[in-house]
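Good morning C.,

I know you're traveling, so I'll keep this short. The sequence:
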Amino acid sequence: MFKKLLVVFLISMVPLVELRGAVPFGLSPAMGDPLPLLPLYATCIIGNMLPVPFIFFFARKVLIWGSDKKFIGKFFTWCLKKGEKGGKKLQEKAGRGLYFALFLFVGIPLPGTGAWTGTLAASFLDMDFKKSSAAVMAGVVMAGIIMGLASAGVFGAAGTLFN
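The tokens, ready to paste straight into the viewer:
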């Protein structure tokens, strides 16, 4: 069980895959029996949240630092402009509900909307670290629940029931 928990912990830390890939993997029969829900969720949430402070405090600084470098400059500049433009657009649409919008952004498990992207957006918007981390964590928990239900076939069973 420890080996599989370690694997889902590491999967949860990978950008784009994050908890959204780790929960189905932990519930699958890959590498043996499916993991019990509580240890699985706790491990995935911790693994997904571990990079958040580093992303919040250092990612923008690394992008700014690399924006004038020879080989990576164009890509880092593009990332900076894209992040700032997207952040301003989100801020205009969300207004005072910015933290709730961040929670929904992270919580709805779509490609590219996880804790990494949400935290980077919060950093670009100069949002409060504690409030944005709480919103990201709540979103990670919601995404974990949705992925757990989807992995268990709840949504497919509900669709069959209502058709």
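Safe travels,
E.
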